[in-house]
């Protein structure tokens, strides 16, 4: 019996369409394990991704970007919102119904060692998806795995080795080969190069770009390194405390950031020139608020140098202020309103 086929998709330009996605974790205490609060890890994000496109997701540690990636992959069940793959709503599908979509969506994890089973050989790890989804077996499976090893820069002889016999960069190449085994359309990378040396990071990033061009892959690339995200992404979404605060193509975001948080992040990017004069450094005061007790109004107002009274009581709307440039900030909403009144 062959693998289950995905139903015909509705007409849509997007491979991935996420609307108002939320993931809240209940906090339970006491003998009866009563719910006393929630961790608002992802608090209403909306993203779209086209075929062959890379969308980078950046933000400080704890902003919810990794949780968002795992929720989109349905490794965690969303609290609310919707997730569509090629027009098909997968938000509430059970494990059995999700099975055909697993071939369309794969993930590269952050830790290149803990994501690999130490009891299996590298060849068995890469070939396991082919067995689970009944795509190939026997000699055909071995040949396909050997071809994947060659494509990611490993030797077919490496198929017989165990994960502990590889370096960190080689382990991540095994993870990439495994993600390619089923010919997916979407790959979510959860900080796939953050655990690697800088020189190895460049090799893996260039490999991912080459694979995207060869197989027309779409990436949702989660990272905290803006230089890496700038190199690989077509568009970039900036997250803060569970929400997307700005989204634009990478040229626009790096040259004309609108949200104060984005401006602060970009001002902290190191300049690879020790003699250059550093101007315009924005230092944010205070710590990131707890996702359990979020500030009212705009979540960023406790650290924003431009915060107004209105920011402390009303959450800004997330809107398109320029073609393709989305931002959630009262500064630009108020500016647009003033401009409309003076016409």
What this model shows, in words?
The protein has 343 residues and is α/β, with parallel strands linked by helices. The protein has two domains: 14-104 and 184-341, Rossmann fold (3-Layer(aba) Sandwich); 105-183, no CATH class. It is 31% helix and 24% strand. The longest helix has 18 residues, at 198-215. The N and C termini lie far apart (67 Å). The relative contact order is 0.13.
Domain count, please report it: 2
Radius of gyration: 22 Å
How is the biggest beta sheet arranged? 8 strands, mixed
Going by CATH, the architecture of the largest domain would be 3-Layer(aba) Sandwich
Q: Point out poorly predicted stretches.
A: 334-343
Helical fraction = 25-40%
How many strand segments? Answer: 12
Report strand %. Answer: 15-25%
How confident is the prediction overall: mean pLDDT?
Answer: 89
Q: Looking at the structure, what is the overall shape?
A: globular
Provide a count of the helices.
10
The SS-based structural class is alpha/beta
Q: What letter string, H or E per element, gives the SSE order?
A: EEEHEEHEHHHEHEHEEHHEEH
The CATH H-level superfamily of the largest domain is P-loop containing nucleotide triphosphate hydrolases
Please write the CATH class name of the largest domain. Alpha Beta
Report, as a whole number of angstroms, the end-to-end distance.
67 Å
User: What topology, given as strand order, has the largest sheet?
Assistant: 6-7-8-3-9-10-12-11
What CATH calls the topology of the largest domain is Rossmann fold
């Amino acid at each position: 019996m062959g693998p289950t086929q995905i139903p015909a998709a509705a007409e849509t330009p997007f491979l991935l369409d996420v609307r108002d996605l939320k993931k809240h974790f209940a906090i339970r205490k006491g003998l009866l394990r009563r719910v006393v609060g929630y961790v608002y890890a992802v608090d209403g994000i909306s993203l779209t991704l086209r075929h062959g496109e890379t969308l980078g997701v950046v933000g400080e540690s704890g902003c919810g970007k990794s949780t968002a990636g795992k929720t989109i992959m349905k490794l965690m069940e969303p609290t609310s919102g919707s997730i569509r793959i090629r027009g098909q709503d997968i938000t509430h599908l059970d494990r059995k119904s999700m099975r055909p979509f697993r071939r369309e969506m794969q993930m590269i994890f952050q830790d290149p060692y803990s994501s690999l089973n130490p009891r299996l050989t590298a060849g068995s790890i890469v070939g396991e998806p082919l067995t689970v989804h009944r795509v190939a077996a026997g000699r055909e499976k071995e040949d396909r795995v050997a071809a994947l090893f060659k494509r990611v820069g490993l030797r077919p002889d490496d198929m017989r080795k165990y994960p502990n016999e590889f370096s960190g960069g080689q382990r991540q190449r095994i993870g990439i080969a495994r993600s390619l085994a089923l010919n997916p359309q979407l790959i979510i990378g959860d900080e796939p190069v953050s655990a690697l040396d800088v020189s190895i990071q460049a090799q893996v990033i260039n490999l991912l770009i080459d694979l995207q061009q060869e197989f027309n892959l779409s990436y949702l690339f989660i990272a905290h390194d803006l230089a890496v995200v700038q190199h690989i992404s077509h568009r970039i979404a900036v997250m803060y405390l569970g929400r997307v605060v700005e989204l634009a193509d990478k040229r626009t975001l790096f040259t004309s950031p609108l949200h104060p948080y984005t401006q602060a992040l970009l001002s902290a990017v190191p300049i690879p020139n020790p003699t250059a004069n550093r101007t315009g450094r924005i230092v944010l005061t205070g710590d990131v608020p707890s996702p359990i007790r979020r500030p009212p109004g705009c979540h960023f107002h406790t650290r924003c140098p431009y915060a107004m009274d209105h920011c402390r009581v009303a959450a800004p709307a997330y809107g398109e202020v320029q073609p393709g440039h989305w931002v959630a900030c009262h500064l630009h909403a108020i500016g647009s309103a003033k401009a409309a009144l003076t016409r």
